């Protein structure tokens, strides 16, 4: 890392921080800015090991008058968001998305050359990329705490930084950009950073579409253009026109698991919104093409299509424009509940693609290749990736909801109680009904509102073109009958559309049995007939880690994938694994390149689906340059895993992991499930109780409103521990596992061997190291000091912190390092820069939580908002919170 690059980042942090200081001074006076600076100075010196300064920081915060608490939290929150902008800008400018390890930045050109040296022919490279199917699934899991209106301002601030950096020879441009920067930061300061209402699922979908409009619409053709150049250089040919190695799907408006706000009506509305937005974006493309394609030379096929006109391309594009305008008007009318009486509309991807392809071929045939490969090629690439719906919408529902439908149906038909049948009885019944030609569900069947909602969802599937929809995911799947039930409901209610059905294996037990379930399923001839020899399976990272602890869950996920690869190979079925990852390490998060290359060999065979969640969508895809780099990283990793797969683990490594996972799981369960003080401690020391009031997303924080930790969704579970910097779900149990092994003969040597030679284990340790560096037991101890009274709970907290410190020493021992993140200076620097701004928010949050509890949740509106701002600020400062 050169000195200049760090200087660039530091300069931008200073520019943004100074501007924010001036804005706050204009609003609240210089004396208030001096208070902020005093707090920051205490925090900074406290971070340098001055315990007196740490105490003075806490004392200063506690003595702040109540009127200052909200503006102080806002000031630190705003600075952390501006620091994120500076870092995003730096990463985009210097093509750095994943500063993970020196030299780990994958570059596609180098990889293509390596693949050729390993014996892959140029044709093989082109074919692999052309057939690659990487689907990035945008999900609205509610960790994106920043409002859309602020995101737009932050994007504009980023543009100002670019203008300032490029104005060295044009000082007047720099002055204009600086003036605009001051204006935008003032706008951000005077905008409420906390939503007053939860977003609806439709709001979340609009946010996802906005990412496509503002970033991916530009990044996708740029990515293909770069790929074309690389392939021409290394393989001598372009990527086929209709190839789309990376595509986008969405859960926003389709994920009904535990979210009663996602209904069939909402799903229908989101599908229509996608059609409207796609039509609107394509209209801009088509208008540009109509302006530019004024040529008169054309081939006979195009002449036959448009007749003998002077400007054949414009004639064809005018017709397309008319249809696209009608499509937009139709979608708007449907959204407004009005009838549409306009002309014919574009309903499928091919209706748009074919005429554009005719223009492209004509231009090439008459020698105008340069023009063909300009804006027209960009639009063709967009159609290949986005179709006419922008994304494919996945649908997700819990297995128990489908079983409830079957229970009500069999009971009302006098066939018995489905819920009481054995798995064999269920399979026999479902398979016979799948083969039957008569309908099973009576036309006027009276069922519960819950079952009616499930059936209405399948009706939406029946009314849609298949290309608008992605996969039907069954959460908490555990048996073949869970999949057969969905297949039957799709046949009964879904009409001609049959979507891929993916069981989601989430708990430790489900992961351990995933291979056996899919083996049984694929052995059923009645099911195989429906699959077209393809099977998708989703691996759950969040719930498995919450259920078993991170170490045991990671090994279970690995073994489940191995089993699934072997089962599908045996049955001659193409497998696509769908990774349900979150942003945090505790939910499977981490750099995409390392994560993909740490999967079992053969599990990434040209196809991959992975969720991109919450705030990570903005960090990876929110700006065209960053999105371009993120797509390159995914393409690189999948290409490498396909053509140059990692070696299979040595048998003795597997035995080591079995033992480590067993010890780690027992230690995790011993605390989380078996210690009676654990749940009371969690509720007392974290802001979990207040999280429900933070209007993050459309989904409730709990699957059920009663019960303990097991009913909490994985996101608030992780979010609450992250807020107090203990990060417990991602490390608890690992310390015991590694300590025990290090005490045994040869333990250190074998762990270091696994770390250097096995990508799975090396990546696990790297993620653990990063997580330990972000955690802070002193901050967790302060929350406990302020919020926990019960001696037995305090004793548990002390033990947890001791476990953490032992783990840190053990990890440093295995890594042979003196301190964490020695080899990843940018991550270390990013944490160090942010800490003096996050620390005051922790102090204020603990204080506000205590006041909130003292007042039984009846604190003033300003204090309640200040509490929410501390959560948003800590989330912004730590970035990957969900």
UniProtKB/TrEMBL annotation:
Kindly identify the residues recorded as the active site.
141, 546
One family name in Pfam for this protein: PEPcase
Q: What is this protein called?
A: Phosphoenolpyruvate carboxylase
Molecular function as annotated in GO: magnesium ion binding; phosphoenolpyruvate carboxylase activity
Keyword annotations: Carbon dioxide fixation, Lyase, Magnesium, Pyruvate
- Origin species, per record, is Vreelandella nigrificans
| InterPro entries documented for this protein | PEP_COase, PEP_COase_bac/pln-type, PEP_COase_Lys_AS, PEPCASE_His_AS, Pyrv/PenolPyrv_kinase-like_dom
- Give the enzyme class: lyase
Complexes and interactors? Homotetramer.
């Amino acid at each position: 890392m050169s000195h200049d690059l760090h200087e660039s980042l530091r300069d931008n942090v200073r520019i943004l921080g100074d501007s924010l200081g001036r804005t706050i001074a204009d609003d609240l006076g210089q004396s208030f800015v001096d208070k902020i600076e005093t707090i920051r100075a205490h925090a900074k010196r406290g971070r340098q090991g001055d315990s007196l300064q740490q105490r003075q920081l806490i004392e200063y915060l506690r003595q702040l008058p109540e009127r200052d608490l909200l503006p102080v939290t806002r000031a630190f929150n705003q600075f952390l968001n501006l620091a994120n902008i500076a870092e995003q800008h730096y990463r985009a400018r210097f093509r750095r998305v994943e500063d993970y390890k020196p030299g780990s930045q994958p570059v596609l050109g180098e990889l293509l050359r390596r693949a050729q040296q390993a014996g892959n022919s140029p044709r093989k490279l082109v074919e692999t990329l052309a057939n690659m199917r990487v689907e990035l699934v945008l999900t609205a899991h509610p960790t994106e705490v920043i409002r859309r209106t602020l995101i737009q301002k932050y994007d504009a601030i980023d543009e100002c930084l670019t203008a300032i950096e490029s104005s060295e020879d044009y000082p007047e441009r720099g002055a204009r950009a600086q003036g605009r920067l001051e204006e935008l930061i003032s706008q951000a300061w005077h905008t409420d950073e906390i939503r007053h209402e939860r977003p609806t699922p439709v709001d979340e979908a609009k946010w996802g579409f906005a990412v496509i409009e503002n970033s991916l619409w530009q990044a996708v053709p740029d990515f293909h253009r770069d790929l074309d150049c690389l392939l021409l250089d290394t393989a001598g040919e372009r990527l086929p026109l209709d190839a789309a190695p990376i595509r986008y799907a969405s859960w926003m408006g389709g994920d009904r698991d535990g979210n009663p706000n996602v209904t069939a009506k909402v799903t229908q509305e989101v599908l229509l919104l996608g059609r409207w937005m796609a039509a609107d974006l394509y209209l801009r493309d088509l208008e540009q093409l109509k302006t530019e394609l004024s040529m008169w030379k054309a081939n006979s096929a195009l002449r036959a299509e448009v007749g003998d006109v002077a400007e054949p391309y414009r004639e064809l594009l005018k017709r397309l424009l008319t249809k696209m305008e009608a499509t937009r008007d139709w979608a708007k009318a449907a959204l407004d509940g009005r009838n549409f009486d306009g002309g014919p509309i574009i309903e499928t991807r091919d209706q748009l693609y074919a005429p554009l392809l005719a223009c492209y071929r004509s231009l090439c045939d008459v020698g105008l290749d340069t023009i063909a490969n300009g804006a027209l090629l960009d639009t063709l690439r967009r159609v290949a990736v986005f179709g006419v719906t922008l994304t494919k919408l996945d649908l997700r529902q819990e297995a128990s909801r489908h079983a409830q439908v079957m229970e009500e149906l069999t009971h009302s038909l006098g066939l018995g109680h489905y819920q009481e049948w054995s798995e064999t009885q269920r399979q026999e019944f479902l398979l016979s009904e799948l083969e039957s030609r008569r309908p099973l569900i009576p036309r006027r069947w009276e069922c519960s509102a819950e079952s009616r909602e499930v059936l209405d969802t399948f009706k939406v599937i029946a009314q849609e073109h298949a290309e608008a929809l992605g996969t039907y995911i069954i959460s908490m799947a555990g048996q073949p009958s869970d999949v057969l039930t969905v297949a039957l409901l799709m046949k009964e209610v879904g009409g001609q559309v049959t979507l891929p059905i993916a069981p989601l294996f989430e708990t430790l037990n489900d992961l351990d049995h995933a291979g056996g379930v899919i083996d049984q399923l694929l052995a059923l001839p009645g099911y195989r007939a429906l699959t077209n020899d393809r099977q998708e399976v989703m691996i759950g990272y969040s719930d498995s880690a919450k259920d078993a602890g991170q170490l045991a869950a990671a090994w279970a996920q690995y073994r489940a994938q191995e089993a699934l690869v072997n089962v599908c190979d045996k049955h001659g079925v193409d497998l696509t694994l769908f990774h349900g990852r979150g942003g945090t390490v505790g939910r499977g998060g981490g750099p995409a390149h390392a994560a993909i290359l740490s999967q079992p060999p053969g599990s990434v065979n040209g196809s991959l689906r992975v969720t991109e969640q919450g705030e990570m969508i903005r960090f990876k895809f929110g700006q065209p340059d960053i999105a371009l780099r993120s797509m390159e990283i995914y393409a690189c990793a999948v290409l490498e895993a396909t053509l140059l797969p990692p070696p299979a683990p040595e048998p003795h490594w597997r035995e080591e992991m079995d033992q480590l996972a067993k010890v780690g799981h027992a230690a995790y369960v011993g605390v989380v499930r078996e210690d009676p003080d654990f749940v009371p401690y969690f509720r007392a020391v974290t802001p979990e109780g207040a999280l429900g009031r933070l209007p993050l997303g459309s989904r409730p924080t709990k699957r059920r409103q009663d019960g303990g930790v097991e009913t909490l969704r994985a996101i608030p579970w992780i979010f609450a521990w992250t807020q107090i910097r203990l990060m417990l779900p991602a490390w608890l149990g690992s310390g015991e596992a590694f300590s025990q092994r290090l005490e045994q003969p040869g333990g250190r040597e074998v762990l270091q061997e696994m770390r250097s030679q096995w990508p799975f284990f090396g990546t696990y340790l790297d993620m653990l190291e990063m997580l330990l560096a972000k955690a802070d037991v002193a901050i967790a101890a302060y929350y406990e000091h302020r919020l926990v009274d019960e001696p037995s709970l305090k004793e548990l907290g002390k033990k947890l912190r001791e476990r953490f410190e032992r783990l840190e020493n053990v990890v440093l021992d295995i890594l042979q390092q003196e301190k964490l993140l020695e080899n990843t200076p940018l991550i270390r620097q990013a944490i160090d820069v942010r800490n003096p701004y996050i620390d005051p928010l922790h102090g204020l949050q603990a204080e506000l939580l205590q006041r909130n509890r003292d007042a039984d949740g009846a604190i003033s509106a300003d204090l309640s908002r200040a509490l929410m701002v501390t959560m948003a600020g800590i989330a912004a400062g730590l970035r990957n919170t969900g």
